[in-house]
Amino acid sequence: MEARAMSESRTIQTKLVLPPDTNHMESIFGGKVLAYIDEVAGISAMKHARRHVVVTASIDSVDFMSSAKVGDVLELEANVTSTGRTSMEVYVRVKSINLETGEERLTTESFLTLVAIGDDGKPTPVPAVYPETEGEKLFFESAPARREYRKNRVKTPR
Ligand SMILES: CC(C)(COP(=O)(O)OP(=O)(O)OC[C@H]1O[C@@H](n2cnc3c(N)ncnc32)[C@H](O)[C@@H]1OP(=O)(O)O)[C@@H](O)C(=O)NCCC(=O)NCCS
């Protein structure tokens, strides 16, 4: 399977924060942002794997650095940063934009692991990914450490 450039999976989504997405203080629910993150990561992984079926195996910790209010815009950017045999690590960065002032703030960022599913309903191999820019190289080279961390976390007895 031919390796694909990281940029090929780049996906950008823009969402307007509406009243049903927010609490009584007009701040967006964290769960809503998570749903957006899951969606954009899924599209990015589907682009990379060129498959319609991918599932989210895990979402790394998500810290909310700032909120977004009704009328703000959320911009989500995702791309595949590394791959295993059947899994893809996807990085998602979310920023909020105040359309009146133009102020942009980082809302959150996270890494997700998505797995490509074959026609038999089982995990199926995905192409490798390669970085092209210096920024992409940083994500790519730090991926094995994150993968190792996840493996150990899953092994932790509950
Ligand atoms: C994720 C899932 C497909 C893994 O299936 P499995 O039978 O355990 O398959 P495998 O053990 O072969 O793992 C497949 C890949 O997933 C990775 N994986 C499995 N669990 C993982 C986890 N918790 N975090 C990160 N990666 C994980 C494995 O490392 C492996 O990657 P690799 O092929 O690149 O080495 C399966 O657990 C599943 O379907 N989970 C539910 C997914 C879902 O429905 N998500 C939506 C929200 S509920």
Automatic annotation (TrEMBL):
EC number: 3.1.2.20
Top class in the EC scheme: hydrolase
Keyword Transmembrane: no
Ranges where the HotDog ACOT-type domain occurs: 7-120
Pfam families per the UniProt record, alphabetical: 4HBT
InterPro entries: Cytosol_ACT (IPR040170), HOTDOG_ACOT (IPR033120), HotDog_dom_sf (IPR029069), Thioestr_dom (IPR006683)
Domain of life: Bacteria
Keywords of the record: Hydrolase
CDD domains cross-referenced by the UniProt entry: BFIT_BACH
GO molecular function, one term: fatty acyl-CoA hydrolase activity
Family designation: Belongs to the acyl coenzyme A hydrolase family.
Protein name stated in the entry: Acyl-CoA thioesterase
Organism: Planococcus dechangensis
